[in-house]
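Q: Is it fine to ask for two folds in a single conversation?
A: Yes, each is treated on its own. Send the first.
Q: Here.
A: Result:
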Amino acid sequence: MGRKKGVAEFEESPPDDFDPSNPYKDPVVMLEMREHIVREKWIDIEKAKILRERLRWCYRIEGVNHLQKCRHLVQQYLDSTRGIGWGKDQRPPCLHDPKVEATAESE
């Protein structure tokens, strides 16, 4: 037995019936949405890796002129790395900050 040759088949779009206000309503759709989000994150990460390799190549080839010659690649790489990766899932900053405990003044 060997591996099947061919292209893996999966839905490239997010599930249509996912309800963000109640994600646990349909567990199957919730898992499909999670898989979609993970797949999109991996695609963004791999794009950033490709741009990083191009940038390394440009730095090596251009030498002392890399500041002028590789500027467009630096900008593309910085734009591609903003907001990607695990733990940077576009949540508002209030969810990333430490919780502030309210002090009850019952005096």
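Q: Second one now.
A: Result:
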Amino acid sequence: MSGGGGGDRPGSGAGGTMKTPSDFLKSIRGRPVVVKLNSGVDYRGILACLDGYMNIAMEQTEEYINGQLKNKYGDAFIRGNNGTYNTIRIF
């Protein structure tokens, strides 16, 4: 048997509420992100949408190769279910 309330669970945070992955994904929409592909190419822009397959839609997207700006796109879509990227940084 478990002793204690639901707020005592590990990882529940100081407020006793636990954030689900879905809550986290909703909270980062509209924020600047960097998506780094396994190829080393970075895409920097505003996160518009992210789904359960890790497909990413971005706005005001810039493409960087070897740290240098190569292209600017209004909107970009990165397909995620084939494991094309390995890092998403949120600013």
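Q: Anything structural to flag on that second result?
A: Two points. The longest helix spans residues 21-28. The two ends are 42 Å apart (CA to CA).
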